[in-house]
């Protein structure tokens, strides 16, 4: 139904409206027949019948204009018995679809209409009986309508909550997928970036040294082959667990740090390592420290190959772990910065902090502090 119920009736609305129309006509005919003995002019009986049936036809529009039709019904009910059926249906409609204040107002208007009806029709029954039954029926209909209205509001509230819960669950699932993708992308960057940097350095050395001896060429080719093989293995491991939980991705440990430095040295990068971190370092903190050193060495290989790098990793339980890399000519060229952004996020995830940039002496410095509980 147009208006408050929407542009079209549903199948249920058609059934309810049809039953209401038939029931209103039956009530009106019974009421009209019982009022034929009232001492009123014959022409008023005719007007009673015509307007009562006309009011029944308006029931098809009661959802669109319930208050307006209720006022019209109250005016006709002031003298009409045939208006009883549609008036009751319209009062019920107002109670269902309009606020409680409006229902009370319509009830008051019908009370006035009842007083006029009693004076006009001059019923043989006592005024108390007529008024009592009419008010009782009005109150019952209004109460039933208010109950239906409250129930509909409750159901609508539950539907809204269910829709919001579904939308929130979908949003949380999307956020979870986004976090998983970011974690996977970070892992692939960390795992493959270092290996590919080694490949790039050795391949570049072969390209720019055509006078290299056969032994040097063979040595460089062997390093390239080993690095390519290891990169392929790392890539297979990452792809193999893309559908597994993020925590199952291949993860290095703090104990792998010396081997990481040795790989960089074999690639021709002079690395001085100062490692002093005795104690049982938490796994997530040690892994974050490894990734910071790995990203720093990768950037040194890419942007300043052959330049010395100082790596210092010191700390103790209760004082935290300090990771620092210094390169005299590091970051000579700008990259996309995604590696450093990822490192900053990693440090924040373990409640640490990371900073990077040029020192007054012109060195590039990458430093981080990570918590190490006592």
TrEMBL record:
Matches recorded under InterPro entries: DUF7134 (IPR055558), HATPase_C_sf (IPR036890), Sensor_HK_TwoCompSys (IPR050482), Sig_transdc_His_kin_sub3_dim/P (IPR011712)
SUPFAM superfamilies: ATPase domain of HSP90 chaperone/DNA topoisomerase II/histidine kinase
Reactions the enzyme catalyzes: ATP + protein L-histidine = ADP + protein N-phospho-L-histidine
Domain Signal transduction histidine kinase subgroup 3 dimerisation and phosphoacceptor as annotated: residue spans: 181-245
Source organism, top-level taxon: Bacteria
Keywords of this entry: ATP-binding, Kinase, Membrane, Nucleotide-binding, Phosphoprotein, Transferase, Transmembrane, Transmembrane helix, Two-component regulatory system
Residue ranges of every copy of the DUF7134 domain listed in the record: 11-152
EC number(s) per entry: 2.7.13.3
Segments crossing the lipid bilayer: 14-31, 43-61, 67-97, 104-120, 126-148
GO molecular function: kinase activity
Gene3D superfamilies, per the entry: 1.20.5.1930, Histidine kinase-like ATPase, C-terminal domain
Protein name (record): histidine kinase
Organism annotation: Kribbella ginsengisoli
């Amino acid at each position: 139904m147009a208006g408050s119920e929407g542009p079209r009736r549903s199948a249920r609305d058609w059934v309810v409206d049809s039953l209401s129309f038939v029931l209103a006509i039956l009530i009106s005919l019974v009421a009209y027949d019982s009022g034929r003995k009232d001492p009123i002019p014959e022409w008023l009986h005719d007007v009673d019948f015509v307007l009562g049936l006309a009011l029944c036809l308006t029931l098809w529009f009661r959802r669109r204009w319930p208050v307006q039709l209720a006022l019209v019904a109250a005016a006709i009910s002031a003298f009409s018995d045939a208006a009883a059926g549609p008036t009751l249906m319209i009062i019920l409609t107002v109670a269902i679809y309009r606020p409680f204040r409006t229902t009370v107002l319509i009830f008051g208007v019908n009370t006035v209409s009842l007083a006029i009806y009693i004076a006009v029709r001059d019923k043989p029954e006592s005024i108390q009986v007529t008024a009592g039954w009419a008010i009782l029926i009005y109150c019952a209909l209004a109460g039933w309508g208010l109950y239906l209205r409250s129930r509909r509001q409750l159901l609508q509230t539950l539907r809204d909550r269910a829709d919001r819960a579904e939308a929130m669950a979908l949003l949380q699932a999307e956020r979870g997928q986004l976090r998983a993708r970011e974690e996977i992308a970070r892992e692939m960057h960390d795992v493959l970036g270092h290996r590919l940097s080694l490949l790039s350095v050795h391949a570049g050395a072969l390209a720019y040294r055509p006078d290299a001896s056969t032994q040097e060429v063979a040595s460089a080719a062997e390093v390239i082959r080993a690095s390519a093989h290891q990169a392929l293995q790392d890539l297979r491991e990452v792809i193999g667990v893309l559908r597994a939980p993020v925590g199952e991705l291949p993860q290095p440990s703090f104990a792998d740090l010396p081997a990481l430095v040795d790989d960089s040295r074999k690639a021709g990068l002079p690395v001085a390592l100062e490692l002093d971190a005795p104690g049982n370092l938490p796994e997530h903190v040690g892994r974050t420290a490894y990734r910071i050193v790995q990203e720093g060495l990768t950037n040194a290989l890419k942007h300043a190959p052959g330049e010395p790098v100082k790596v210092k990793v010191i700390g103790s339980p209760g004082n935290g772990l300090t990771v620092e890399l210094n390169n005299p000519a590091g970051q000579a060229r700008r990259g996309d910065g995604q590696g450093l952004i990822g490192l900053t996020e990693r440090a924040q995830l373990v409640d640490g902090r990371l900073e990077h940039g040029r020192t007054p002496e012109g060195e590039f410095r990458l430093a981080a502090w990570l918590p190490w509980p006592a």
